[in-house]
Specification:
Blueprint lengths: L1 H24 L5 H25 L8 H21 L5 H5 L15 H25 L4 H20 L11 E2 L3 E2 L2 E2 L3 H26 L2 H17 L5 H27 L1 E2 L6 H14 L4 H21 L4 H15 L3 H17 L1
Antiparallel strand pairs: 1-4, 2-3
Helix pairs in contact: 1-7, 2-7, 2-9, 2-10, 2-11, 3-5, 3-9, 5-9, 7-9, 8-9, 10-11, 10-13, 11-13
């Protein structure tokens, strides 16, 4: 079984790391398609974090899109400052801002921007998680409060007074590390970096879930009261995985902004957070490969559906979710695993 898993991993990496770029170089695959899959990889990284906290720990967090956007906004601020040079970004000129806001200043440095893109979401997650877990909030109340948090942050980022572009968000950035984002090879490079970090994130999460730490997380999911009677501090484990999930979302967001060319508050609203949870539910909750498969397949279907049926995507997504809950609650990957197990059983 382990040998088969390794073969599947190698096929996945070979297809996306070799065949797809080779298809572009031969003229069979457009660079826009490559960039599109690069964005899907960003979503898959965020989905891994959701699976850690929901699938393995049983905590339904509905604010992961907020952490995703914190990473996106951070790197977008840096790129926008490099594009505008010594002048203020255009949206600040329109809003009659006289000088660069103090919280924009650190993002002039690329290295400092990377650190802040990781530190700020982690700090937010730590504070939010500490308050919620110390208050022993769980279950549906956890989902409602984190959803309310996502809504509050969305409303905050919509305001021009926040200094982050308001409804229009941040856009019109052209370079990253001095490299033009419109260049074909830069787009291909961002795609490959996204794939590489997805693989790194997956195997890091795999090691985590198969370690003692991961076993405790699953024990908390299955019976938190029993774990609380042991020597393990449940709150510390829940807080740790909440911060790790936020970090993964932020990393995905950092890679997303350069490949999309824009980041708006719409990426952090309640609908976006619900969609992220649905990726994991449809792919297979509690299975890391299910989280990746769900994020990739659902977003691929979204691209096709919005091209063919522009107004029908939410109905299609809702239908898929209902079918999953009613007939294969373990998701697509769980269904495939069940079919393989039945096949093996009949062979014997």
């Amino acid at each position: 079984m382990e040998k088969e898993k390794k073969i599947y991993y190698l096929l996945f990496i070979a297809f996306f790391a070799l065949l797809l770029p080779a298809g572009h170089l031969m003229g069979w695959v457009s660079i826009n398609t490559i960039s599109l899959w690069g964005r899907y990889f960003c979503f898959a990284i965020a989905a891994l974090g959701i699976d850690l906290i929901w699938g393995y720990t049983g905590i339904l967090s509905m604010c992961q899109a907020f952490f995703f956007c914190l990473g996106s906004y951070g790197i977008a601020m840096h790129m926008l400052l490099k594009t505008s040079g010594t002048a203020l970004p255009e949206f600040m000129v329109w809003n009659k801002v006289q000088s660069l806001p103090f919280f924009w200043v650190p993002f002039q440095s690329f290295g400092l921007s990377l650190l802040l893109c990781l530190i700020i979401p982690s700090l937010f997650a730590f504070i939010i998680g500490y308050v919620l877990f110390r208050s022993r909030i769980k279950g549906v109340y956890m989902a409602i409060i984190t959803q309310a948090l996502a809504l509050a942050m969305w409303l905050l980022f919509l305001r021009n007074e926040t200094g982050l572009g308001g409804t229009n968000g941040l856009t019109d950035f052209r370079t990253l590390l001095g490299l033009p984002l419109s260049n074909t090879y830069v787009k291909l490079g961002l795609y490959l970096v996204s794939l590489l970090l997805l693989c790194v994130a997956y195997f890091a999460c795999y090691k985590m879930t198969h370690s003692k730490f991961g076993k405790v997380l699953q024990a908390i999911r299955d019976s938190e009261p029993r774990v609380s009677f042991t020597a393990y501090k449940v709150m510390d484990y829940k807080l740790a995985v909440f911060v790790v999930a936020a970090l993964l979302a932020a990393v995905g967001g950092m890679l997303y902004a350069p490949q999309t060319g824009i980041i708006t508050p719409g990426r952090m609203d309640v609908k976006a957070s619900v969609e992220m949870v649905m990726w994991v539910a449809l792919g297979g909750r509690g299975k890391l490969k299910g989280a990746v498969a769900g994020a990739l397949l659902v977003n691929f279907l979204y691209s096709i559906s919005t091209s063919l049926f522009p107004d029908s995507w939410l109905y299609i997504l809702g239908f898929l979710f209902v079918i999953t809950v009613l007939f294969f609650d373990k998701g697509f990957v769980g269904l495939i695993d069940t079919l393989f197990k039945r096949k093996e059983a009949t062979c014997y």
